[in-house]
Design brief:
The complex is a heterodimer of chains A (559) and B (562).
Chain A lengths: L1 H19 L9 H16 L8 E19 L2 E21 L2 E2 L3 E2 L9 E3 L8 H31 L17 E3 L9 H13 L9 E17 L4 E18 L5 E10 L8 H18 L3 E2 L2 E8 L1 H11 L10 E3 L9 E3 L17 E5 L5 E2 L2 E2 L16 E5 L2 E2 L19 E2 L7 E2 L3 E6 L6 E2 L1 H14 L5 E4 L9 E6 L5 E9 L5 H4 L1 E12 L7 E16 L18
Parallel strand pairs in A: 4-12, 6-8, 10-25, 11-23, 21-27, 22-26
Antiparallel strand pairs in A: 1-2, 1-7, 2-3, 2-5, 7-8, 8-9, 11-27, 12-13, 14-17, 14-21, 15-16, 17-18, 19-20, 23-24, 24-25, 25-27, 26-27
Chain B lengths: L1 H23 L1 H17 L7 E19 L2 E19 L33 H32 L17 E3 L9 H13 L9 E17 L4 E18 L5 E10 L8 H20 L6 E7 L1 H13 L29 E5 L5 E2 L2 E2 L16 E5 L2 E2 L19 E2 L7 E2 L3 E6 L5 H14 L4 E13 L9 E12 L6 E3 L2 E5 L1 H5 L2 E4 L4 E9 L2 E9 L2 E10 L18
Parallel strand pairs in B: 3-5, 7-16, 15-22
Antiparallel strand pairs in B: 1-2, 1-4, 4-5, 5-6, 7-23, 8-11, 8-15, 9-10, 11-12, 13-14, 16-17, 17-18, 17-19, 19-23, 20-23, 21-22
Classes of the chains: A alpha+beta (559), B alpha+beta (562).
Amino acid sequence: MKKIIIIALAFAAALPAARGLNAAPPSDDKVFAAMKDEMARSMAKLNMDNLGKPYFLSYHIGDGHSFSVTADFGAVENLNSSDYRRLKVDLRTGTPRFDNSNYAPNMWEGYRAETDWNIALDDNYDALRFAVWSATDKAYKKALETLSKKRAFVESKNMTELYDDMTPQAPYELYRTFAVERLDEKLWGENIRRVSAVFLKYPEVKYSSVRLHFNSGGVRYLNSEGSANRRPSCDGDVTITASGYAPDGFRLKSSHVYDFCLAKDAPALETLLAKADEIGKNLARMSKSEPIKAYIGPVLFEKDAAGKFFETLLVNNVANPREVWTEKSRWSEETVYRRAGELVERIGMRVTSPFLNVVDDPTVRYHEGVPLSGFYEVDDEGVPAQKIKLVTKGKLSEYYMSRAATRDFNKSNGHGRGDFSEYPAGSPSNVFIIPEDNPAKVLPMPELKKKFLDLCKEQELDYCILVKGLDSLYGPFSAWKVYPDGREEPVHGIEFTGTSLRALRDITAVSKETYVYNLAWSTPGTIVTPSILVQEMEIKKTEEKPEKKPYLGHPYFAK
Amino acid sequence: MYKLLFSLCVLLAPAVLSASEEAKDPYMSALVKELDRSFTGLKNSEKTPLYYLGYELTASKYHYLAAKLGALDGDADYSSSKLDIDMRVNTMEMDNTHQVKGNMAWTSGGQSLDLPVAMEGNEDALRARIWEYTDKAYKKAQENFTKVKMNKAVTAAEDDPSADFSPSKPEIFYETVSLPEPDLAAWRERLKKHSARLAGYSYIYDSGMTLSYENENRYLVNSEGNRIKTGNNYITLTYYLTSRTTDGMELSRGEYYNTDSFAGLPSEEKVNSDMDRSIAELKALKDAPIVEPYSGPAILKARAAGVYFHEIIGHRMEGHRQKLEDSGQTFAKKVGQKITSDIVTLYDDPNMKEFRGIPLRGYYRYDDEGVRSQRVSIVENGVLKGFLMSRSPIRGYPASNGHGRRSSGKPIVARMGNLVMKASVTSTYPELREKLIEECKKQNKPFGLVFDDISGGFTNTDRGNAQAFKVLPLLVYKVYTDGRPDEVVRGVDIVGTPITSFSKITAAADDDAVFNGTCGAESGWVPVSSVSPSVLISEMEVEKSQKSQEKPPVLNPPLHDK
């Protein structure tokens, strides 16, 4: 009986390898040829001291051109322009039920795939294949070691629930051609410099910086089960940040990020100049800001602030559904390297107000003309991109899945993504907050503001709090007091107290207008969100202390 | 009369030109204006006065080209302008940089700062950044001084009561060092061609070739009147090839060619023949037997001896180590005493631009405190003479001798520049080899060791640990007394304690050679050189080197899959 099981297992393990040879990347692609030939050899022959062959192997080669420029106060401080080609290997030993993944041998080395950041830039078959061989060898030895450590870890604990490390997936092939796009780097160096010079007009802005980064190229992916793809890959952003001081010395910040992927979608110079101006004006107004003591009442989150609200409370908590374990050490008592999102345990339960639906759709490229950076056709595990329903009428129906199983799901939903050094894990792409068609809850912005002020009057408050931009829901921030007559005054040095996932269920109304917020996740993504009115939140004065203001005046404005 | 005037003009012209270039230099202008404004404005802003302010701006242009197995895998430019600020409050006797002892020590450790400034000469932008960083540095200096005062009050008195800073005379100097762009297309092809030669060997598990070149200009201004601009060019061509033995030992061969102009780089033929030699050496090492722990006579070949002197003695001659309370202070009280054998004379001279036509990486005109570099006599005929000094004085050495160095972002300490070992008695190398055999026979040893190449080493100067060193040889030969051919061996590190090791240097050859490298210590990575002849050491101790547990690759490289 035992023998039969072993034979059956061996057969199952052999199948994917045999199928791997079926992927048929374009025959004139030398990079694919090097990947494919070395993969075939590795799957057939890699077996050190009979410790076990790999049962799964995938290669990811990304290449393109990278450009970045940073400018400060009218001068360029940093400019980089270079071509890159890099390789990531995901090699699994053991079985799909239990392999070397989802386990970080120790805290400081982290949970990282085997990578080579500099491989042949030319399409030189021999050099590429050598690089693939070298990284595969390292990945294989590491995988064997990690698997034995993970086995020991599990055996030392009473772990009753183990989920499959690699769920089955039908092979999928997609071959796009891609071109490496180059911005006019001289022009953009000058553009960014000019945007940074806007702050010469604002004495209230003490420190500022404007940065552009743009990577453009493509990715080739091949795995031993027969999935393969070649696809364009790009990410870019322009970030404008400025900061100054409130009269009491608290640092005030204002910033904006434009994400884009195609060169044609890079924000226009006029747009950037206007935004820098707006940030400068905003900071000038905020520099007269006064602190407040405490506040309990309705809070209106506008645009970016609404995005931050959903990102922190919802999106981050339905991602990375599989825990990554680690071993305790002399320096760390922790046995979980990366926790699963907090809402993952709440499938079928109410997580937001019942008039809200949330979907994630990686296949959408633009929203009302604004580029959505979460767009992709196939994820980092070679699984086709899928639109998923995260929240239906307030109840959590699904979360982000890679090929690692969880208690609820045994299949990827095409959201396995990771940045270059990470293993793919369930990650967001383009999140859409879609309210039910309810005229009492979904209002044009002026009416939402009116409803906010009505609530304020109802509760006999002198003013209510409006948040326009937010660094964090858990630290000090700046906002606006809005008086019943609509007058706005800046406040700062406050933080939310006792902010919990409950706030998602206290959303009482939203705007008709939507806004594209760019996620601060390791892979590009967005939230298309309305502005939101939360029934009640508690705010207190921060315990952080203000800085000592600069001793001398700014040399330019003190002249 | 006219003639005289004319010739005077010609003589004066470069200086005049340079002066006008200096006057128009926006970096210098921004630094000086902010220096004056900050120093005056901050001097008495707090109870503890600001007494010294220094700025160093390092403008660097760096290019990197890399190839492996016939394909380019690196091609990038990095340009940067970075600011370093040296801010001192209270008095030279005791200031904010004073060492904090005991449990609080970690709070005052020099932290690495990255302070980018405009790469273009935009004076307003430069001044805005200098102001921002200066304000932060001033607050930090005041905060640190409070800690110093408290620490001083609650801990025992130091062994060395020297002040924290020493006076130095202001320097004015202006030069702009430039580096013409090389023919990059030709170099890309050359690197590909060279690197492709390493593809044909199944036992080479990794290899590569790189060309990097850096043009660096430094501005140094301070509140005492320093107004300096000076620079260096650093060009390095290098290749490496590595392998691994079945018992897990990493083997590596390679060559570095360091120079300050592209004309100084070796020809294609020279690199190819060096590569062939390295390939043969790697093969020999792969098949070489492991040498057992040994104590007996040995020769350090010239470049290896250079590394040896740098590690074993050089670091211990860095002035601040004679003062830091947690330092071993091996030599603090040995000045005037014999510390090595009579034949050894050792000095450090950053003014040497080259040695017998070979450019020295440790060359510089001014150190990072703006002090003019000076030749420092360390050992004369075996007797300890002095130390390498920054502006942090030690007992008996109240002034800097131009050895205060750092890489941008780190606090300055005393470092080596060009360390030179001169032997008073020399012979030819073959004669030295004969002496080795004689010495072996005298000690009844069947063989002696020759250390041909050393990758570098570690030396421990902390008080908490043994005052030991370890040097990691890359290529070692056994020389038999019975006339058998020399044999390549592997798997040993040189170990020992410095004072005993120095006394055992018994002879030297006349084959002085240069080791150019980059040395890392608490003040960062700085370019250095060592010059030394081959030396015979009557008793050297080697121990088994550490090896990894990693096996050679499971499969052969793809081109050699048989």
